[in-house]
Automatic annotation (TrEMBL):
Official protein name in the record: MFS transporter
InterPro entries, A to Z: MFS, MFS_dom, MFS_trans_sf
Database matches in SUPFAM superfamilies: MFS general substrate transporter
This protein's UniProt keywords: Membrane, Transmembrane, Transmembrane helix
CDD domains: MFS_FsR
Domain Major facilitator superfamily (MFS) profile: 24-403
Residues annotated as transmembrane: 21-49, 55-74, 86-105, 111-129, 150-171, 177-195, 227-251, 263-281, 293-313, 319-338, 350-372, 378-397
Native source species: Scleromatobacter humisilvae
GO MF term list: transmembrane transporter activity
GO CC field: plasma membrane
The keyword Membrane appears for this protein: yes
């Protein structure tokens, strides 16, 4: 108890804005890990839900759509509101919504309750992500890419742990064992209460920094065009990720005859590679610029995505690991690039991009589920293989590094 009190005091103490607060970044990243691990349990237990409620692929996609749409629709609104009126204690409130959805999922008696549970989890995500992204930027000390990468790696690590936890705990003990993770959610709520204290103590300093940042803004026309390009890149990235996160286990079971636990372990490898790759994009973007990172991360996976539907199990595993490693470096670079395009609107920009990412993931899961029912899982992967080629639109992005140098 004494250690927790000490941690709370340290987190709540205002820090110097010029220094990177790794303690706060570690805390918000850990909370992101807990939040996204609980969310990923929904995807990880799709095979269990499919068997228990006799679901088809369209219904599986509808679960993802429900979760992703509730997350995507509310996030920009949360971001816009908190840009004007910061709400530090919204962070533990978001985690409480996620906890409620998780408990409902554990005891859901029918498909409708599963959808309601997914909606609660999505609502928790919509509250958590914009404000936690703001905290990461506040604690960055100017290393914005590094801060977003550290924040994102927590979420991606949590997403990777979901299938591992499902294979080790939920598959042997049944869907109701999801409720056991309520204790983990409570730990997350306690941690976020401490982060909220620090946020409240430092928000005035952050607001002054945001006002100064307005001087570096691009012309509105250029900003609108660049945002449109970034949203196209988010579409290609998250539609493709939806094909793996929602249907990869079924693909491995149908094509290679793997068991549920083995397929979930393969999904864990992909998600773990995604978590590792997240650490690359932000810090590299701080050094060489966001645009080269975006180029390499989206377009760089195209050869592996195109080859994936035509190879055996060993190469499938290898290619999905490489895809996760490379593709995951994009989001931190895209988000920080967008925040630099629209200074002083961290919440709105974060909410827009997190929300759009979740929305594209949900729409992708629903659309690909319908396509899988009408054709086959193999056909879905053959079609999705071309999505990373949309990375060529990165050429249309303005070079913000050169502009920043000229301004200096």
């Amino acid at each position: 108890m004494r250690g927790m009190s000490s941690t709370a005091t340290t987190l709540a103490r205002p820090s110097q804005p010029a220094k990177t607060s790794f303690r706060v970044l570690g805390a918000i990243s850990t909370a992101h890990l807990i939040n996204d691990m609980m969310q990923s349990l929904i995807i990880a237990i799709y095979p269990i839900l499919k068997g228990e409620f006799s679901l088809n692929f369209t219904q599986i996609g509808l679960i993802s759509l429900t979760y992703q749409l509730t997350a995507s629709l509310f996030q920009p609104l949360v971001g816009l509101y908190t840009d004007r009126k910061p709400v530090p204690y919204s962070l533990p409130v978001g985690m409480t919504f996620t906890l409620s959805g998780l408990v409902l999922l554990a005891y859901s008696p029918n498909f409708a309750m599963v959808l309601l549970a997914a909606a609660l989890v999505g609502t928790g995500s919509s509250i958590f992500h914009p404000e936690s992204s703001r905290v990461a930027r506040m604690a960055s000390g100017g290393q914005h890419g590094l801060a977003q990468s550290l924040f994102q790696v927590g979420g991606n690590t949590g997403s990777a742990l979901g299938p591992l936890v499902a294979a080790a705990v939920i598959v042997p003990h049944g869907k109701s064992s999801v409720a056991w993770f309520a204790m983990v959610a409570l730990v997350g709520i306690v941690l976020l209460l401490q982060v909220s204290k620090w946020y409240g103590a430092n928000r005035v300093v952050a607001a002054k920094g945001a006002l100064k940042a307005h001087a570096a803004a691009l012309p509105r026309k250029h900003v609108a065009g660049a945002i449109a390009v970034l949203l196209v890149l988010i579409f290609s990235k998250y539609f493709y990720i939806a094909s793996i996160s929602s249907f990869y286990t079924f693909y491995l079971i149908e094509k290679f005859g793997l068991g549920v636990q083995s397929a979930q372990m393969h999904l864990f490898l992909f998600l773990a590679a995604s978590a590792a790759g997240t650490l690359i994009g932000g810090p590299v973007g701080d050094r060489i610029g966001r645009k080269p990172v975006i180029w390499g991360s989206i377009l760089g996976v195209a050869p592996f995505a195109l080859a994936l539907p035509h190879v055996g199990l060993a190469w499938t595993t290898t290619f999905t690991i490489l895809i996760g490693l490379i593709l995951s470096s994009a989001f931190s670079a895209i988000l920080v690039y967008a925040q630099e395009l629209i200074p002083g609107k961290v919440g709105a920009v974060s909410g827009l991009f997190f929300g759009f990412a979740f929305g594209m993931g949900g729409l992708g899961a629903a659309a690909l589920g319908i396509l899988a029912d009408a054709t086959s899982i193999d056909f879905v992967y053959s079609v999705c293989a071309f999505l990373p080629l949309l990375g060529v639109v990165t050429a249309l992005l303005p070079d913000t590094n050169k502009r920043a140098s000229a301004s200096a």
